[in-house]
Amino acid sequence: MQQRGKRKSWVVAMVTAVALGSSCFGLMSQAASAAPVTLTFWSRPQGEDGGIIKLMIDEFNRTHTDVQAKLTIIPQEQFVQKVATAYRSGDAPDITSVDLIYVPYFAKAGAFEDVTSIYNAAKYKNQWSKAHVALSKYKNKMYSLPFTAEGSVLFWNKDLFKQAGLDPEKAPTTMAEILSAAKKITALGGDTKGYYFSGACSGCNIFTFAPYIWAQGGDVLNKDGSPNFASKEAKVALKFYKDLWDAGTVPESAKNDNGASFAAPFLTGKVGMVGAGAFFIPGLVKDHPEINFGVTPLPGAKAGQSSSFAGGDNIAVLKGTKYPKEARAFIAWATDKGQTFLAKQPVLPTRLDVAQKTYVPLDPVNYKVMYDALLVGKTPWTTSYNSLIQDNQGPWLKMFTGAIFGGDIDGAQKAAQAQAVKIYKKEK
Q1: Which CATH architecture has domain 2-150+310-378?
Q2: pTM score, two decimals?
Q3: CA 255 to centroid of chain Cα atoms
Q4: What mean pLDDT is predicted for residues 220-240?
């Protein structure tokens, strides 16, 4: 998600596993005297200055002689346009790591190679995150492979819970329980608040807010990709956030936060609860041992309901590459045994078997929550993600801000649905 580009530098340390991947797929044998094939690889930043991908490329180049990879980091806000423009001009890279939400867009545009054969040949294909696989598909063909995973969950400050007279070991299991706990924590006074969200960030709020809709059984988009912004489940979730805001449980600064802060206020020890992802855990453990925290699923209106936004990247081969065999072998290497090394760092892998065997044992309590989040994780499938959801001037954020800060939930939903339908019909 775009908000992740706002993370602190310690995120880099948590994701260095990619660099430890070993060569597991032999590439084409070439004469010793032949110059190696050079694959161009574009990626959005992952970690400070693209640290994750840089480390992975370094390891690939160290362990392969016939093929080398050259990395280019594209700024987050420029990535989609840069890749699209390069493809149309015939100057595209051989390989790209792309936020999975944009795979349908690029697949529709014809920019990605069909990698269905790699997927079908993978012995672990049934272990991949279902959301990542679903976003790889366009017209029943695979145009990318799952690469890195993320999930949204709820963090709570156990010490603040205890100070507020709440059981510090009992996580909220419904939206109503979150609201009640947030009010009690806020009542502690001073600058202590019960909850935090980035009110002016579309990407942030699809990541941490949409699960409250999904957990109830609702959806953001219909199965055909058409918008479903005016659902009763969305109304319940919007009222929940409006109640949090109206009760004063959220800092005033949250209203204009475009993602620059995201979950960072939780690190002050003055915020009781916040939605964030797996990336948040290692930094809390390493850099903020003073914060006694817990991790729990984002709940629905009833106990037992939960959901999560399945984020991360898929990896794809660009149409028109001069080295299709080498590029396909590269993504096979990047998505196989590298998952195990990724999990050891620890980073949530897209492989469920690896997550269960390698990732969870590193922190059986908190990482088990992340594993469970991956099992129920969803990602909206649409070829118009930018226009419908990601754009801060688009209908998704307008609905969010209009309902919560403007106070008119029904009106905000109606207006957003009408705008979203127009966009959908135009771009379909």
Answers
A1: 3-Layer(aba) Sandwich (3.40)
A2: 0.88
A3: 22
A4: 96
